[in-house]
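Side project, low priority. Logging it here so it doesn't get lost.
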Amino acid sequence: MAIAVDASLEVVGPNGSRRIPAGKFFMSTWVTAMAPDEVLVAAHFPVWPGSCGWAVDEVARRAGDFAMCGTVCGIQLDGQRVSRVALALFGVDSVPLRARATESALIGAAVDDLDLPDIGAAVAATLDPPGDLHASAGQRRRMAKALVPRVLATAINEAKHA
């Protein structure tokens, strides 16, 4: 979620505190931009005004397990048009990813004209996820293809009723 909404993460160490943009915080699996003597103390999330909706969904083998694939969506509407969108995926790379090309393409679009399954397919086609004992690369792409339309639909519905 932090990467999707351009949050910043505050860390504190012997040299004081500093904020790290979420997009630069995660370096790779299990590696962050924190120094060994720093500790994470806060997450700062920007507040989106107006008609906004949010959704998070993931696929995991069991509740509480790490996600094999997950998606986060925030959407802001101006009437029936998308004025702001954030779409991120996790479990498909060593760090969470933003679907920036899709975000750009959605700005200004009429929500009733969106073909959510096509958007999911387009996002999935851009991914090059790793395969491991939990899921193959192809399975992760198929999960993303299914999850992206679900989070978009949920976020849009919430924003319409905000």
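Brief comment: Strands lie at 8-13, 16-21, 26-28, 31-32, 39-44, 51-59, 69-78, 81-90, 97-98.
Revisit when time allows.
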